[in-house]
User: Which sequence fits this backbone?
């Protein structure tokens, strides 16, 4: 999904004549369209009473199955209350009883959540790239620790949940630089036993639809029969995100640009690190540790947090 644009939005003025949306006795005025993906749109809205700017996610459902998936996102957002996970402001399901000429629409699910003016980690990466700059290592580790803490809340839930689409575009930055994991539409119960080839193909198809290729774990490209997939799919993605935050691109970006197979590059862990990056070797060591091709060799989130906390303290002491 495209992340929330910033500069254009903040120039918007009067809401006169704009559409109003009522959700649970709260009225919101739409200001502008700020993002869209394959399944939804994001509008910038203003609370009619408080004038607070918020983000409204509109998910158009073309079937009852679409509706079920959209409402699952709402339920998952209701489940987690953590500083590093996007909170739910309001939500509703609007049935639609007519058909358009092009395609039937069963319903629309509306999700109101905070609006983050600073955009996403991906937006930050683009700004740094344009300036020819990079993140400082203490800042990088501190932000990465926040992302890990958000995932810990999901992985420690009973039953554990995996996000399955952790990437820079899905991590917003609050005004105080707190990273916020968002877009829980791909999240699901983490531990899945694959007993048949049909179950493997089904999970593979879901991953292809909802999990971004450049950050997708190897076991989701080729789901093996008689295997178990667990929350360590997110640990692989964390490794990709750490690499991207340091080097301002996905570890498989160049493979993608060449038009080569992402799946082969991921399964072969075709990782290349930039020389003379200015970062300590802890970046490369941690990325390599997180991105083990065999998920059983990857750490769980608690071990990751213990390691990253050490690195945060070490980098702060070096400053």
Assistant:
């Amino acid at each position: 999904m495209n992340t929330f644009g910033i500069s254009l939005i903040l120039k918007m003025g009067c809401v006169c004549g704009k559409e109003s949306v009522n959700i649970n006795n709260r009225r919101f005025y739409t200001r502008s369209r700020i993002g869209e993906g394959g399944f939804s749109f994001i509008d910038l809205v203003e609370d009619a009473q408080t004038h607070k700017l918020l983000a409204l996610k509109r998910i158009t459902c073309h079937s009852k199955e679409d509706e079920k998936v959209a409402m699952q996102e709402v339920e998952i957002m209701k489940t987690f209350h953590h500083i590093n996970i996007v909170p739910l402001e309001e939500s509703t399901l609007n049935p639609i009883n007519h058909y358009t000429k092009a395609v039937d629409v069963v319903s629309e699910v509306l999700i109101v959540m905070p609006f983050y003016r600073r955009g996403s980690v991906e937006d930050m990466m683009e700004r740094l790239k344009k300036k020819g700059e990079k993140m400082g290592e203490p800042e990088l580790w501190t932000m990465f620790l926040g992302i890990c803490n958000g995932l810990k809340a999901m992985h420690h839930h009973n039953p554990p949940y995996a996000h399955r689409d952790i990437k820079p575009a899905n991590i917003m930055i609050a005004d105080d630089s707190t990273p916020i994991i968002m877009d829980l539409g791909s999240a699901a119960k983490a531990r899945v036993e694959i007993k048949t080839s049909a179950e493997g193909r089904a999970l593979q198809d879901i991953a292809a639809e909802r999990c971004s290729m450049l950050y997708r774990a190897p076991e989701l490209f080729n789901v093996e029969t008689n295997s178990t997939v667990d929350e360590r799919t997110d640990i692989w993605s964390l490794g990709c995100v750490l690499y991207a935050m340091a080097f301002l691109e996905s570890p498989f970006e160049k493979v993608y640009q060449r038009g080569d197979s992402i799946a082969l590059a991921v399964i072969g862990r075709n990782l290349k690190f930039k020389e003379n990056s200015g970062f300590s070797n802890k970046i490369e060591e941690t990325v390599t540790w997180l991105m083990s091709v065999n998920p059983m060799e990857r750490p769980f989130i608690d071990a990751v947090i213990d390691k990253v906390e050490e690195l945060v303290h070490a980098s702060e002491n070096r400053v």
